[in-house]
Amino acid sequence: MSPGRSNLTSRLEASAFRTISLNHVIIPCRWNLDSAKAALESAVPPLDLAAYKTARSSGNNAQALAALQALPTLNNFVVPPRDFGSLLSVLDQTGKAFQYEIGNPLTALSMARFELGIALYAPIRVLLRQTSLGGAVFEFDRPIDTMGQFGNSRVDKIAQDLDRDLTQVLVQAAGWKEFGDWDTRHSKL
User: Fold this and answer.
1) Which SUPFAM superfamilies match (predicted)?
2) N or C, fewer C-beta in 10 Å, the chain?
């Protein structure tokens, strides 16, 4: 490696890299993957930005904001979800896994107004996958951790609410009443 390249690498590492700590959540499902998928898709509607786009195209920002405010708390940004299971077949592997992007444009905007870097993490990616034992799990990184890296108390409050709402909808889609209701010794993880 040339001296110039090494110097550049050192400067990048000193100024552009930050280590963060986050909690990765795994919620085991009470039922099979197809049932959990149907429950999630029933609970989290597809994102519908038609009213917002109409208002924006006419230059009516107040109406555009009202359209965002009228959206459900959580929306599915990618319909249908990304089918990672079919991607695995390219490598002659099998498995069922679906990736969702779940969130709310107004929630993201509310955080991004204070920290634009939020755009890297909103909406939240959620994975629903089949386990090797035939069960299913939801997985995601907690929004309070990914958004919390910016050290902004206004963002943290919004991220805590998003964290709570997302966790609640996933727990219910997995067939549970509350977080932690499952006993992993008896589930098909």
Assistant:
1) TT1751-like
2) N
